[in-house]
Amino acid sequence: MRKYLVEFIGTFFLVLTVCMTVLGGAGNFAPLAIGSMLMVMIYAGGHISGGHFNPAVSLGAFIRGALPASDLLPYIVAQILGGIVAPLVAAPLLGSMGAADAVTSRLDVVPSLIAEFLGTFALVWVVLHTATAKGTEGNSNYGLAIGFTVLACAYALGGVSGGAFNPAVATGISIAEIKSFSDIWVYLVANLGAGAVAALAFNFVNGRD
Predict the structure, then answer these.
(1) pLDDT digits over 130-146, tens only?
(2) Among 113, 122, 167, 209, which residue carries the largest CB count within 10 Å?
(3) Domains of the chain, residue spans
């Protein structure tokens, strides 16, 4: 249960940061806060749960062989719960700030699928190589590398798809009405597909790591 609680807490703060910065007027600085929150939560909880905070990362870690099958579903449930609770907590906080109501935007499907796939692939690829590979075992920079991957991809691709790269974040931004619930399938397909492909690519490149 400790692992699942850590995954819930980390995902909660990640999605809360997304909601508060995107709807709270942080503008172009939002990716800095989001990448930083992911980084610090990974450093805080990585030694307990691995610091996934993302169902696509958990799926990739499972395919790579770094997460037992018995943990896959509980991890995903904990992460999605964090993604659900965060926007519910953010709503009254944003109201007290006088933040503008969300204006739900729709996705351009094909570009968004591509952007979410690429961003999630990059994220899972970096996670697996910095946090699970034997060649980088014991390094102290994995959290920074992962946080900066999300930061860079959010700036590079966020204008296309919103830059979720994470089904739990997609759930949160849908509840917060930043993106339409009718488009959540785009995130789920692209994010989970990219997580699986990144893990298969990792296994191919690293062999019996």
Answers:
(1) 999 999 988 999 999 99
(2) 167
(3) 2-206
